[in-house]
Design goal:
By secondary structure, this protein is α/β, with parallel strands linked by helices. The chain has 9 helices and 10 strands. Helix 1 packs parallel to helix 4 and helix 8 runs antiparallel to helix 9. This is Hydrogenase maturation factor HypB. Keywords: GTP-binding, Hydrolase, Metal-binding, Nickel, Nucleotide-binding, Zinc.
Length: about 300
């Protein structure tokens, strides 16, 4: 514990300082360093290092943890109900998450265009305002329902449950959920989906998986979109995949361009394989089917 200000928590040696420097983190996330017996307050601030991994003015870390636990417990109950509904009706649901401008809606339009003759497909769109994205999906002939969250920054399982009551996806169908665009909050909310799919465009920088690790830890698949722009950018594809696998060693990555169609076949093959697996509800049958598909690949 620091005898000057009473802080406690993480300590670290900082390479290259020439001194033994200790780095302290307060419970509210602010940080400072000590070097050579002196006490230096640095300008680094990390509000996610407390027990709640977040900060709200006037609210203690313990209170924030309790509030988050209560919210997520209620969400998980609704997510379980959604998941049971999907299983009962053979619906394969994906939760597509990304930052704004990653090309999610363009990817969805191209995806439903390729699959709607093979499977019943419908879409739930999430945005704070407007129905512009749902309008683009409906123009393809596929049912789509827009959820506007107002000031909310993510979809939750309760919203999706109400959307299902109106949208009524067909049995044995594919349901694509386009979440509100940000790389933070949608990571924490289970919607009852089979998988989260993170879309990262090559214009955003390869370091996003390290900057926003929760999102890539929660996803089973990362789509690196807008690959047609790679000749004009310094984006390092291998480094982006390496960063994603630092936070989630099991994540799969597919490089594609929803605009030109490059790489779309691999994405569609993945979807087809997951649809086949979802059609076998028994675990034993599912594992057998996975083996068959892996041999085929």
């Amino acid at each position: 514990m620091c005898t000057v200000c009473g802080c406690s928590g993480e300590e670290a040696k900082i390479e290259g300082t020439g001194n033994h420097m200790r780095f302290h983190v307060h419970a509210d996330g602010t940080a400072h360093s000590h070097s050579g017996g002196a006490h230096h307050h640095r300008h680094d601030i990390h509000y996610g290092l407390g027990p709640a991994h977040a900060h709200a003015p006037g609210m203690s870390q313990a209170r924030m943890v309790k509030v988050e636990q209560d919210i997520l417990a209620k969400n998980d109950a609704y997510a379980a109900a959604n998941r049971n509904y999907f299983r009962a009706h053979g619906i394969f649901a994906l939760n597509l998450v990304s930052s704004p401008g990653s090309g999610k809606t363009t990817l969805l339009v191209r995806t439903v265009g390729a699959l709607q003759e093979r499977y019943p497909v419908c879409v739930i769109e999430g945005d704070q305002q407007t129905s512009l994205d749902a309008d683009r999906i409906r123009a393809t002939g596929v049912p789509a329902l827009q959820i506007n969250t107002g000031r909310g920054c993510h979809l939750d399982a309760h919203m999706v449950g109400h959307a299902l009551e109106q949208l009524r996806p067909r049995d044995n169908s594919l349901l694509l959920i386009e979440n509100v665009g940000n790389l933070v909050c949608p990571a924490s909310f289970d919607l009852g989906e089979a998988h989260k799919v993170a879309i990262l465009s090559v214009t955003e920088g390869e370091d996003k998986p390290l900057k926003y690790p929760d999102m890539f830890a929660a996803a089973d698949l990362m789509l690196l979109n807008k690959s047609d722009l790679l000749p004009h950018l310094d984006f390092d594809v291998s480094l982006a995949i390496e960063y994603a696998r630092r936070v989630n060693p099991g994540i799969r990555a597919i490089v594609l361009s929803a605009r030109t169609g490059e790489g779309m076949d691999e994405w569609l093959d993945w979807l087809e394989m997951q649809m086949d697996i979802a059609a076998f509800p028994g675990a034993e049958a599912g594992e057998s089917r996975i083996g068959e598909l892996e041999v085929r690949d």
